[in-house]
Write a structure and sequence with these properties.
The complex is a heterodimer of chains A (348) and B (224).
Chain A: E1 2-7, E2 12-19, E3 23-31, H1 33-36, H2 44-65, E4 75-81, H3 85-102, E5 106-110, H4 111-117, E6 130-135, E7 140-147, E8 150-156, H5 162-172, H6 179-187, H7 211-224, H8 231-264, E9 268-272, H9 279-292, E10 295-297, H10 301-304, H11 308-317
Parallel strand pairs in A: 1-4, 4-5, 6-9, 9-10
Antiparallel strand pairs in A: 1-2, 2-3, 6-7, 7-8
Helix pairs in contact in A: 2-3, 4-11, 5-6, 5-7, 5-8, 6-8, 8-9
Chain B: E1 3-8, E2 14-20, E3 23-29, H1 32-50, E4 59-63, H2 69-86, E5 90-93, H3 95-107, E6 111-117, E7 123-129, E8 136-137, E9 142-144, E10 158-160, H4 163-166, H5 172-177, E11 180-182, H6 193-201
Parallel strand pairs in B: 1-4, 4-5, 6-10, 10-11
Antiparallel strand pairs in B: 1-2, 2-3, 6-7, 7-8, 7-9
The chains are: A alpha/beta (348), B alpha/beta (224).
The structure holds adenosine-5'-triphosphate and magnesium ion.
Chain lengths: 348, 224
């Protein structure tokens, strides 16, 4: 079975074909970084415009690259939410009419479910049940995953998402947009022990919080003043701040995961979402898992950030839920993961 | 005979229309929120009623704006999806011209100034002439402050579109010059059909990559 996946929830246009026999057979990703960087953040209208201009030709190219024609597809899956409403509507409208015209099922996909299933695309995929750490630009959640669609939210951030904190602190450090990866790069040349930054709610249950950490970096920069700006010494200070900040985020996330693993008794931890691309986080979690006796799974970095492959795969997992009627265009800007219903057949 | 499907979702609701052997059928959509729920269903129902299939169409017309950015992307993307799947020629048509076409159809209006609300204190507008019912833009389509809207010509003309309701004071002097003001009028899909038929006959069809909305508001409008 071949499923086309379409991702347009934010600022990347992603398209892929998943073949249940061969895995991902073709994919393409266009990141709108250049469009939004001069604004310092995603401008929703401009994101929608670019998706609308790029998506249709991109689908044609990906299908050709897969060595098939559109007629060979068995289903079309698209991100129906959560995300930017206008951007979601572009992918949904195109997916619905494409599926309708081809006479094949159209499957709305939950973006965060797709993130948490992305690890299944790697060799040695995790078996259910597992704990998922969803860490992205808009989410930071610990989710107990009993099966497909069977999710229990154990804890979440009370304020900023981890990726959002990376992006905001990167802006404080005047790093180029998008900030997360740039900050992680800068942290490589810094000393993570240079500054003592808070680890909010460290041992208080499974709730998380990152806005205090961001404020602490702001205060630190104010205190350091020009010392953190000028010359080679300033550059080193900024690298030290980046490393100290990253260490605080990583320690917080790793601790919460450990807590959740102990309290649930689960044996596998799956990392998903853009911050999951962070090398320090990946390495530290792997070590902690080895020490404490649980397996840690994460997809390659390109499958952590937004992409079409995870949508195609999640669509395949959800093929049994596709309605038989005419497709409606679904776009749900807010859509809690727990609202999904368990499905009995699907993944393998 | 020509078979065309038309989609118009740039305004306050929208419609889907079908032309088969000279006969036009249409379904209207009441609100912008309804567009995504019913557009595919309405296309399917019109085709079924006419006893034809999607693959038998000679082209798909869509209101390419200007209008609601979110709405006009629905019609655009739905048209693109069919074009991609079946290779159906795509025919983008001005949504302002659709209003002028409707004025001709319903009131026999030959000269019009169409002006719709563009938010952010601005309006989309253009002047149209319809000699013998063949609607054509007279000049350019504009995005501007309501104060800059003008009608050039000595003939009598009709002012139409939501812009006249949104900016009654700024457009008061201009409205007084019009023979009549019809603010409560929306573009309809059936009025894209004559324009699309002419475009198809003239070979003016778009490829997937250029069958795109005409926003008029440029990207630098978001520059802070
Ligand atoms: N190496 C990295 N280190 C830290 N953060 C990173 C890294 N790479 C990406 N990120 C962060 O990941 C986020 C983007 O991830 P993703 O694309 O999954 O988020 P999103 O799709 O915007 O949000 P959501 O999935 O919650 O809707 C950004 O905040 C980015 O800064
Ligand atoms: Mg994401």
């Amino acid at each position: 079975m071949k499923v086309l996946g379409i991702e347009t929830s934010c600022d990347e246009t992603g398209v892929a074909v998943y073949d249940s026999a061969d895995g991902i057979v073709a994919e393409a990703l266009y990141s709108q970084i250049e469009i939004h960087e001069r604004f310092g953040g995603v401008v929703p209208e401009l994101a929608s415009r670019d998706h609308a201009a790029r998506l249709a030709p991109m689908i044609g190219n990906v299908v050709a690259e897969a060595g098939i024609t559109l007629r060979d597809l068995d289903a079309v899956a698209y991100t129906a939410g959560p995300g930017l409403i206008g951007a979601l509507m572009v992918g949904g409208s195109l997916a619905a009419s494409l599926g309708y015209a081809l006479g094949i099922p159209v499957i709305p996909v939950h973006h965060m479910e797709a993130h948490l299933l992305a690890a299944m695309l790697e060799p040695g995929p995790p078996a259910f049940p597992f704990l998922a750490l969803l860490v992205s630009g808009g989410h930071t959640q610990l989710v107990a995953v009993s099966g497909l669609g069977d999710y229990e939210l154990l804890g979440a951030t009370l304020d900023d998402a981890a990726g959002e904190a990376f992006d905001k602190v990167a802006r404080l450090l005047e790093l180029p947009y998008p900030g997360g990866p740039a900050l992680a790069k800068l942290a490589e040349s810094g000393d993570p022990g240079a500054y003592a930054l808070p680890r909010p709610l460290l041992n208080k249950g499974l709730e998380l919080s990152f806005s205090g950490l961001k404020t602490a970096v702001l205060r630190l920069l104010e205190r350091l003043g020009s010392a953190a700006r000028d010359g080679g010494q300033g550059a080193q200070i900024r690298a030290d701040i980046a490393a100290s900040f990253q260490a605080a985020v990583v320690e917080t996330l790793v601790n919460k995961c450990g807590l959740a693993m102990r309290s649930t008794g689960l044996e596998r931890l799956v990392i998903a979402g853009g911050v999951g691309a962070n090398r320090d986080l990946r390495r530290t979690l792997k070590e902690r898992g080895q020490r404490d006796g649980y397996a840690v799974h994460y997809p390659r970095p390109a499958l952590c950030t937004d992409n079409g492959a995870m949508i195609a795969y999640a669509g395949w997992c959800r093929r049994a839920t596709a309605g038989t009627g005419l497709p409606r265009i679904e776009a749900r800007p807010r859509w809690p993961l727990e609202a999904l219903e368990p499905i009995t057949s699907g993944a393998s | 005979m020509t078979r065309l499907l038309a989609l118009e979702t740039s305004g306050n609701g929208g419609s889907v229309a079908l032309l088969v052997d000279g006969a036009v059928t249409e379904r209207t959509i009441a609100t912008p929120r309804e567009q995504t729920n019913v557009i595919v269903e309405y296309i399917d129902a019109l085709l079924a009623d006419a006893g034809i299939e999607l693959g038998m169409l000679d082209g798909i017309a869509f209101g390419r704006g200007p209008g609601s950015f979110t709405g006009l992307r629905v019609a655009t993307a739905v048209a693109q999806g069919v074009g991609l799947a079946l290779g159906t020629p795509l025919l983008p048509v001005s949504s302002l011209a659709a209003v002028a076409q409707r004025l001709w159809r319903e009131h026999g209006v030959e000269h019009s100034l169409i002006c719709i609300d563009a938010r952010m204190g601005e309006v989309f507008w253009a002047q149209f002439a319809a000699p013998g019912g063949e609607v054509a833009v007279d000049g350019d389509e504009h995005l501007s402050d309501p104060a800059a809207v003008e009608y050039r010509g000595e003939n009598s003309w009709v002012a139409a579109g939501g812009g006249f309701a949104a900016y009654p004071t700024q457009l008061a002097a201009l409205s007084r010059r019009a023979e009549r003001v019809i603010a409560d009028i929306e573009p309809l899909a059936q009025d894209l059909l004559p324009l699309a038929t002419a475009a198809l006959a003239a070979g003016r069809v778009s490829t997937l990559a250029d069958a795109l909305p005409a926003y008029l508001r440029r990207e630098d409008a978001w520059q802070r």
